UniProtKB/TrEMBL annotation:
Source superkingdom: Bacteria
Record-annotated YdhG-like domain positions: 27-130
Record-linked Pfam families: DUF1801
InterPro entries: YdhG-like
Entry protein name: DUF1801 domain-containing protein
Length: 141
């Protein structure tokens, strides 16, 4: 039986979400990221669950269980209190190869963590976002 997807698109305004981010540095960086992601992807931001600002969508198929499918943003971010979480940058081989040039970051299972935008190369970030935004839809046949 396929698992029920918990994180889905919502009708929450992403700009209001970003404006409410704390501390102030997280809000400022979140606003800057929103501009960068919108410019690079050409997509409007959509809130996914309570805390992810996503761009584009694709249908994923779990490699370990092909019956486990769902939709997910191609790329996105969350201005979390402790750090910025950026999604989709390392999912594709081309992005994973470019990631070491990003600057100062750490990795989680599905995202990259950045303390502040000044720690990373924004031009490399834009390339990584473009790679993620061009992701093919795994569920397409």
């Amino acid at each position: 039986m396929a698992a029920t997807q918990k994180t889905l698109p919502t009708n929450v305004d992403p700009h209001e979400f970003i404006a409410a981010a704390t501390p102030e540095k997280r809000r400022v960086d979140g606003e800057a990221l929103e501009k960068i992601f919108s410019e690079v992807t050409g997509e409007k931001p959509v809130m996914w669950g309570p805390s992810i600002v996503g761009y584009g969508t694709y249908t994923y198929v779990s490699p370990s269980n092909p019956k486990n499918t769902g939709i997910w943003p191609k790329t996105g971010f969350s201005p979390r209190k402790a750090q910025l979480s950026i999604y989709g940058l390392k999912d594709l081989p081309e992005g994973a190869a470019l990631l070491p040039q990003l600057g100062k970051y750490t990795e989680g299972a599905g995202c990259v963590y950045v303390k502040k935008l000044e720690d990373i190369n924004v031009q490399v970030l834009k390339k990584l976002i473009a790679i993620a935004a061009a992701r093919p839809d795994q569920g397409a046949s």
